[in-house]
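Curious: explain these tokens?
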Amino acid sequence: MNTTPQPDPRDRPARLTVGVVGAGRVGPALAASLQLAGHRPVAVSGVSDASRRRAAALLPDVPLMAPAEVLQHAELVLLTVPDDALPGLVSGLAETGAVRPGQLLVHTSGRYGARVLDPALRAGALPLALHPAMTFTGTPVDVQRLAGCSFGVTAPEELRLAAEALVIEMGGEPEWIAEDRRPLYHAALALGANHLVTLVAQSMELLRTAGVAAPDRMLGPLLGASLDNALRSGDAALTGPVARGDAGTVAAHIVELREHAPQAVAGYLAMARATADRALAHGLLKAELAEDLLGVLAEGRPGPSGPAGPTGTTGTTGPDRSGGPAGSDGRQGPTASDGRQGPTASDGREGPVGSDGREGPTGPDGPTEPGRPDGTTGPDEGPTGPEGDAR
């Protein structure tokens, strides 16, 4: 057993005073993690009662202040507000003279790189974008989860080492993301993490309807194994009726979902189409089995051979059908009865859109108020996405 006294982290050189603007679920956890590395939290701002309670739990004895006051007291400031509030907050702080030259200004948005901090940069601040790819609960467990967590890092080249050093001090692993790739990086995390929560929640609801008393216990081992297989093997881990080409089973699923959970049908069809495309592209789904399967999925019909039903990837159509997705032989397949395009496949077919032509809801953060000129922000609450994006 090593009995040599360990140095106090606070005795390390270049220790910084730390401030938090936006005491949602992310900011206090990051500040607490920096405190473990020897930095000193000195100020925090929060709007709601919940944010103030979080600050008190994770940063006890750290005083609550207005955003502009936080910047007055801290050398390193964490801007942990929702994405939509960030540009207005930065502009407001810069316009009111709250930003000080040489001050490290760090935001944790996945969507934005360092450029969103340009107003502060012009005021002399040092801009860093450090996005933890992690879900946050607003409890002390978040600090433990930062160990080994990847951070999407974007900063001016001259600040790259400083940004990476801060991530390492928080126990994370820096991953450099180019400024123009931040939205794509963020979309990838949202696709995998946020949608996973929706899929799991829907699956548990359906199992309860089917009579399963403890759907979490049933799904835990299965989903854990599926995630592990997917991370290890990618598309080679695909299994189930879609990857096997079991059109009859998929048709039966659709019938049951229409009866018991009609709100889940669109998601099932979209994911089944995407799964079929990937299984075909990687040789897991046999072409001779794909025809009936894609016919079932083309419109979500109860079976591949009902009246006026599509005939699948050959591209021929039933009555009054034309102009749909290209089949495996390149001919046009069916469209939906409302004239919309069919699913996107790996061969470049067009994908579905909403019935009103609009895109669906975005990211996990939810609506927020824009930053105000005095540097205050709208609500810092809201749901926390598993990519750690709601502040």
About this structure: The first helix runs from residue 27 to 36. Residues 302-391 have pLDDT under 50 and may be disordered.
